[in-house]
dATP/dGTP diphosphohydrolase N-terminal domain-containing protein (Kribbella deserti), 131 residues
Amino acid sequence: MTIAPDTTAPGPAEPEATPRRGRKPSPYTAAFDLVRDAVKAAHDDHGQRDHPLHGGQIPAKGRTHWAHQAQRWSDANAARHDADRMGWDGLLVHDLYTALGTSDPAEQTAGLAELAATAIHAIAALETTNR
């Protein structure tokens, strides 16, 4: 006759877990989540997705306007920097106008990527400030 092992007997005590301090959540995580959700919503909302970057009757005239605005905001941001009054608003519109003020597709792509990066930083700053 074989005797089955007693499975009801207590086993060795498990070591107690050492409490760990959690990492502080990155404000960029929330920013990326917001942007991901906005991209999904924009995908559904914009319908036709083959719009040119420059619309209107005379796209070249628009590019000239945006290039002028980019220079204005570059000058404004320099003055703000010197006065220690920088704001995300000036950085964002400068990046937007810089991307729109060129006809070179590589510069447009780089400019829009810079705008997206600046927007992520601005969202993270808001998340940090508003906690």
Summary: Residues 99 and 106 are 10 Å apart (CA to CA). Helices lie at 27-45, 59-82, 88-100, 105-129. Residues 28-34+59-129 form one domain. Residues 105-129 form the longest helix (25 residues).
